[in-house]
């Protein structure tokens, strides 16, 4: 029998109202929102009134003590993730944190020390891996139905105008952690990694071509996986025709998905190689990727006292790939996954501690 958990929301912005509250309301028998916390007291009060939440506050520590939530949902800007997650874990609450998880591998690993066996654990919002089509493909890869993975494409081609970066924390290494690789393409890269597993080597380039930011606004990478598969990865905020596109070529089939911010089965195609029978390949249920679907898996893990998916080593994969991408692009050399350790300056900050200087792009404008 499922438990009904007390939930606190930290950060009363658009992602909390647009995604997390509807997802929590989809689980009325399993989740009750008892508090909302935001640095802006008026915004916290307005959010509480809109969603009929009993407690609102500006201080997380005080709210944790007053309301004793079982689960904290962190929806703040990226720079505040680490402290919010740590305080919540230390108070004994499980945590579901928006992407990007934190600003560095060092922060990610430090938070692992605040988890305990059997919970509380922190998991991260990577909803695209939970749709039924992705789950079907994951099973097919595991059992060899489609053959070996050989070639892949993982492209996040989005558009964010100059006004988007007027928000003070965006486009800065210190507060966003990185550019579109960190804040936008991370969703598709997590889906890629959840399907193909660990990578071995990455070679990347990036540039600040048009937006007035300290980070990149586009990156391109070639990634070699432990399986031997080779994948191209592109992350852009400069693409007027927006698309999130992943393609996987196996020895027996090609599988593709094209969408923007979420998919259902209609966005996916399976194409069999000549002579291969595709009978039974398509998903038998149509579960769209969504916060609600991932929340179901998270609450199930809480019921069992088990680490949720997209946490621990599983949640770390996307941070590893992004760290390697930035290191390769900034240093101009290939980077191997086993190099991402505490001796490496990119372990602590994704620009290597101020190594990225987009002067050439600035001079060209």
Describe what is shown at a glance.
The protein has 365 residues and is an alpha/beta fold. The chain folds into 2 domains: 5-126 and 294-307, NAD(P)-binding Rossmann-like Domain (Rossmann fold); 128-287 and 317-364, Dihydrodipicolinate Reductase, domain 2 (2-Layer Sandwich).
Give the overall pLDDT as a whole number.
Answer: 96
Secondary-structure class: alpha/beta
Question: What's the shape?
Answer: globular
The CATH class name of the largest domain reads Alpha Beta
CATH names the topology of the largest domain as Dihydrodipicolinate Reductase, domain 2
Discrete helix count: 12
N-to-C span:
61 Å
Using only CA atoms, what is the Rg? Answer: 20 Å
Percent in strands = 15-25%
CATH superfamily of the largest domain: Dihydrodipicolinate Reductase, domain 2
Please, could you describe this protein's structure?
With 365 residues, this protein is an alpha/beta fold. It folds into 2 domains: 5-126 and 294-307, NAD(P)-binding Rossmann-like Domain (Rossmann fold); 128-287 and 317-364, Dihydrodipicolinate Reductase, domain 2 (2-Layer Sandwich). The protein is built from 12 helices and 14 strands. It has helices spanning 14-25, 41-51, 60-67, 81-90, 105-112, 132-143, 173-176, 180-183, 186-196, 291-304, 312-331, 359-364; strands at 5-10, 31-37, 55-57, 71-74, 94-97, 122-124, 149-159, 199-207, 218-225, 230-236, 238-250, 253-259, 268-272, 335-336. The chain has an 8-stranded mixed β-sheet. Strands 3-2-1-4-5-6 form a 6-stranded parallel β-sheet, with helices on both faces. α1 crosses α10 (291-304), α6 packs parallel to α9 and α9 packs across α11 (312-331). The protein is globular, with a radius of gyration of 20 Å. Residues 6-117 form the Gfo/Idh/MocA-like oxidoreductase N-terminal domain. Residues 135-252 form the GFO/IDH/MocA-like oxidoreductase domain. GO terms for molecular function: nucleotide binding. Pfam families: GFO_IDH_MocA (PF01408), GFO_IDH_MocA_C3 (PF22725).
């Amino acid at each position: 029998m499922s438990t009904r958990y007390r939930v606190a929301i930290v950060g009363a912005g658009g992602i909390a109202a647009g995604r997390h509250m509807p997802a929590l309301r989809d689980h009325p028998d399993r989740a009750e929102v008892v508090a909302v916390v935001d640095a802006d007291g008026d915004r916290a009060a307005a959010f509480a009134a809109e969603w009929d939440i009993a407690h609102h506050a500006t201080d997380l520590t005080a709210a944790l003590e007053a309301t004793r939530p079982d689960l904290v949902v962190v929806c703040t800007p990226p720079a505040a993730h680490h402290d919010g997650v740590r305080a919540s874990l230390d108070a004994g609450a499980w945590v579901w944190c928006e992407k990007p998880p934190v600003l560095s591998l060092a922060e990610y690993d430090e938070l692992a020390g605040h988890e305990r066996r059997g919970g509380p654990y922190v998991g991260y919002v990577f909803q695209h891996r939970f749709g039924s089509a992705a789950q079907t493909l994951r099973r097919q890869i595991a059992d060899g139905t489609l053959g070996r993975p050989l070639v892949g494409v993982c492209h996040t081609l989005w558009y964010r105008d100059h006004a988007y970066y007027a928000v003070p924390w965006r486009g800065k290494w210190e507060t966003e952690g990185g550019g579109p690789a960190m804040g936008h393409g991370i969703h598709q890269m997590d889906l890629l990694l959840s399907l193909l597993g660990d990578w071995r080597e990455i070679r990347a380039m990036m540039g600040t071509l048009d937006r007035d930011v300290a980070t990149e606004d586009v990156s391109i990478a070639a990634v070699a996986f432990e399986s031997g598969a080779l994948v191209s990865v592109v992350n852009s905020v400069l693409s007027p025709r927006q698309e999130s596109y992943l393609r996987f070529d196996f020895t027996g089939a090609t599988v593709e998905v094209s969408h923007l911010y979420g998919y259902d089965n209609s966005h996916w195609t399976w194409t069999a190689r000549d002579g291969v029978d595709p009978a039974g390949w398509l998903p038998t249920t149509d579960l769209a990727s969504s916060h609600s679907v991932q929340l179901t898996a998270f609450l199930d893990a809480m019921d069992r006292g088990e680490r949720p998916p997209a946490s621990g080593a599983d949640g770390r994969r996307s941070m590893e790939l992004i760290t390697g991408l930035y290191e390769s692009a900034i240093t101009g050399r290939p980077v191997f996954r086993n190099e991402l350790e505490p001796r490496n300056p990119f372990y602590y900050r994704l620009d290597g501690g101020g190594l990225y200087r987009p002067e050439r792009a600035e001079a060209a404008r």
